[in-house]
């Protein structure tokens, strides 16, 4: 099972034997989703954290004015869910849907805790991934607070290489917090 995307990601942090990886994989379910399929509705319980094998997902929320706010995209080798709803087992305030046909591995909180308990190196892996996610979120917030649209655009290009070829410009604009017109100007400068 060498070369498996999940194993590759885990082994960036901790090394696993073949038997350990088989044990880890037994705690995940392979899931196949269609483009436009909603995997988590706002108001539902977030039962799974998803590791994207291939395809593209997003986390978003609509405000009271009908404006969409995209918090995250989940491309290959990314983890995606409503983290608060998943970890606290409460109703989601976010929606997770598929922007492309997507294959993912799903992990329940119960299985995540079981893995962490029975294979302590996985606890270390999950802790480092959570810490890295927290740092990325902090950087994104700081970028929004202190950067102009051009800097946010370049930040997006570095975090999500190839994304602008995979999603409509309106979604990129939503993620950046700019209008489509501003996004078009930024893209022209880049070209």
UniProtKB/TrEMBL annotation:
Record domain Cyclic nucleotide-binding: where: 12-71
Alphabetized SUPFAM superfamilies for the sequence: cAMP-binding domain-like
Coiled-coil region list: none
Domain of life according to the entry: Bacteria
InterPro entries: cNMP-bd_dom, cNMP-bd_dom_sf, RmlC-like_jellyroll
UniProt protein name: Crp/Fnr family transcriptional regulator
């Amino acid at each position: 099972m060498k070369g498996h995307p999940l194993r590759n990601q885990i082994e960036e942090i901790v090394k696993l034997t073949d038997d350990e990886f088989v044990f880890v994989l037994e705690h995940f379910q392979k899931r196949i989703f269609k483009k436009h399929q909603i995997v988590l509705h706002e108001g539902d319980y977030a039962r799974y954290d998803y590791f994207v094998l291939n395809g593209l997902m997003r986390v978003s929320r609509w405000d009271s004015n009908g404006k969409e706010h995209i918090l995250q995209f989940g491309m290959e080798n990314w983890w995606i869910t409503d983290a608060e709803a998943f970890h606290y087992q409460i109703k989601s305030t976010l929606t997770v849907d598929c922007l492309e046909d997507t294959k993912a591995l799903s992990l329940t909180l119960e299985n995540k805790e079981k893995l962490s308990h029975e294979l302590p190196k996985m606890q270390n892996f999950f802790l480092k991934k959570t810490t890295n996610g927290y740092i990325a979120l902090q950087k994104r917030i700081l970028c929004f607070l202190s950067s102009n649209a051009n800097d946010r655009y370049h930040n997006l290009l570095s975090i999500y290489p190839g994304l602008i070829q995979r999603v409509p410009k309106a979604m990129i604009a939503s993620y950046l917090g700019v209008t489509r017109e501003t996004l078009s100007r930024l893209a022209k400068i880049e070209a």
